[in-house]
Amino acid sequence: MRNFLQAPWHTSADARIRVAAMALLIVFASSAVAGDFQPLEDIRAAAIAAALPPGQANANSAAEVTLDAELHLPRCSEPLQAHISARSVAEVSCGGASGWRLYVPLRVTRSQQVLVVVRPLAAGQVVTADTLATETRDTAMLSGGLIYDINAALGHVAIRALVAGKPLVAEDLAAPRVVHRGEAVMLVARSGGIEVHAPGKALGDAGVAERINVENSSSHRIVQGIVRAGGEIEVAF
After folding, report:
1. What pLDDT, on the 0 to 100 scale, is given for residue 24?
2. Within 10 A of 48 (CB to CB), how many other CB atoms are there?
3. 15 pLDDT above the threshold of 80
4. How many helices (H) does the chain have, and how many strands (E)?
5. How far apart are CA 39 and CA 62, in angstroms?
6. Residue 17: CB partners within 8 Å, gap ≥ 6?
7. Predicted local distance difference test score (pLDDT) of residue 215
8. Pairing of strands 222-227, 61-65
9. Measured between alpha carbons, how far is 119 from 164 in angstroms, rounded to an integer?
10. Do 185 and 202 contact (CB within 8 A), yes or no?
11. In whole angstroms, what is the distance from residue 115 CA to residue 103 CA?
């Protein structure tokens, strides 16, 4: 096929103008491909920085981003902005004159040592050292208040049945039981420097700072109080 850029000069003036215009379009298109598109590496770096801010980036953390090699977005005249808009998605945007927004899927991994249940625990069972072990897990895929220190779990009570292999989270546990159903307890009411004590009976199990129903042994009235250190139940006047 004859190259239109090699059109003979004996062609008409209109034809020569059309050839020149086409040549300019090719030059501009080549320039855009070479320098006017946003480098994919810049977009990738912005998405990763949003997923792993400087304070969270370490040797145990990583983020993977996959971008279409054919993606062509106008080069941004300002630094790219990025934030996590949903789980596993970074929103990368250009606030410059070209103005664009791109949602970038990503996969974040964070390898950390967490406490894991090594044998089934029944609801109400006390957590002991032999029921837990430390294992390395990808915490980016886990939710809840993960527990890393075994001392923060020992003596606590499982509030639901826990299966072996489950990473332990704070929502699985209740404070150690210091008051048990049917126990004799001391009720205390405080107001304006006045403190009144009365004997009572616990109507449930509870730990420090938890609420519990108790029966006043004198009036047989059922009230709700908060368990304090030492097993006292603080009630309102």
Report:
1. 33
2. 19
3. no
4. 2, 14
5. 21
6. none
7. 96
8. unpaired
9. 5
10. yes
11. 34
pLDDT of residue 61: 86
**What's the pLDDT at 88?**
86
CA distance 27 to 60: 47
In whole angstroms, what separates CA 48 from the centre of its chain? 15
pLDDT > 90: percent of the chain: 59
Tokens 């294992």 identify what position? 135
Looking at every residue in the chain, the average pLDDT score rounds to 83
Mean pLDDT of 110-121: 93
Q: Output the six-digit token pair for 226.
A: 């908060």
Compute the average pLDDT of residues 47-65. Answer: 84
Give CA–CA dist 90/140, Å, rounded: 15
Q: What is the DSSP letter of 159?
A: S
| Encoded tokens for 28 | 């501009």
> Which helix (H) or strand (E) is 4 found in, with range?
none
Assign residue 18 a region: left if phi > 0, alpha if psi is -120 to 50, beta otherwise?
A: alpha
> pTM of the predicted model, to two decimals?
0.53
- Integer angstrom CA distances of residue 176 from 104, 122, 162, 171, 231: 45, 15, 17, 14, 12
> Residue 131: helix, strand or coil by DSSP?
helix
Residues 147, 87: Cα–Cα separation, whole Å: 22
- In which residue are the tokens 């040549």 written? 23
List the structure tokens of 109.
Answer: 């991994």
Torsion angle, alpha carbons of 160, 164, 169, 171, to 10:
-10
pLDDT, residue 35, reads: 56
CB contact burial 152-191 (16+ within 10 A = b; e otherwise): ebeebbbeeebeeeebbbeebbbeebbbeeeeebebbbee
Residue 2 has a pLDDT of 38
